[in-house]
Amino acid sequence: MLTEREVESSYLGQFIPLHYHHNMLMDQRRMKSFKAAIQQVVFPGAKVLELGGGTGVLSFFAAAVADKVWCVEFNPDMVTEARRLLDLNANGHKVDVIQADAFDYLPPEPVDVVICEMIHVGMLREKQVDVITAFKRRYLEKFGGPLPVFVPDAVIMAVQPLQVEYDFEGFIAPIVQFRDLAIAAEDTREMAPPAVYSVLDFQRDIDPEIDWRGNFTMAHSGTVTSLRFVTKNILAVLMQTGTTIDWLNNYMILPLNEPVTVLAGEVLQVSFRYRAGGSLPSLQVTMKACLLAGGVSAGVGSRLAGSPRKGV
């Protein structure tokens, strides 16, 4: 089995293909949520920066109200595509599409809002946290405070033990799966409710190291084969109503290296660690699940006092 260091050496910087960005335009949940959040946050006369602009659609939403938008994209093919599409749309002339690395770029003047959608389930693989952290440092050095408002505002991440049948016409294959929220999966059983394991607030400093351990009381007897990771993006907070504009990523299901047979009422200890922006394997190699001997749930997400039961 690969070590964490070996799997983290995998190259993570490849460009997302053009057709993937086109698919994102067709994701109505994503589009409507971001449009509503940007309309809520951006005000008339505002200056806006988008880091990782893709097709430029989020910059387009901002340009409907803002005075000026800088849209930064590293992939030259996407820069060409964004300029083509923005030329077809109203207010596209307000958007300056710039071919640059989001890790390095600063706008020519202070901005009011920063949009950055480099979001993968669990904040893995894509560099959302690192890009925003680096931007804050450079921005404060050049312009001083205050920092602009960030969209998304925050992200809430949860994990849930599952029993998943990895049977593909008789071919057993425990594989990583991404599943649409709206499609019920007959081959999946939820073994306990999900537990929140991390909340990242982009308006504040963020620790990219995630290290979690928690308890789950089993609702059913069976075999825990997998962990489901859920990522809820808080795109904007509506202070006047105390509500939020949210966007949920598709679920990510990762198979455990060692499935655990459980009985209803038993307590399962789950632990894992990874760095935001890291590879999927860097999380998978740390995932562990085991039953607690005589375990009584101490509350999801608590530090565990019991001893794990071995040999399950």
Tell me briefly what this model is.
By secondary structure, the chain is of the alpha+beta class. It contains 7 helices and 17 strands. Strand 4 (113-116), helix 6 (128-143) and strand 5 form a beta-alpha-beta unit.
Describe the structure.
It comes from Actimicrobium antarcticum. Keywords: Methyltransferase, Transferase. By secondary structure, the protein is an alpha+beta fold. The protein folds into two domains: 4-117, Rossmann fold, CATH 3.40.50; 154-291, Hnrnp arginine n-methyltransferase1, CATH 2.70.160.11. 21% of the residues lie in helices and 35% in strands. The chain is built from seven helices and 17 strands. Strands 6, 9, 10, 11, 13, 14 and 15 form a seven-stranded antiparallel beta sheet that branches. A hairpin with a 2-residue loop joins strand 7 and strand 8 (171-172). The protein is elongated and about 60 Å long. The two termini are 20 Å apart.
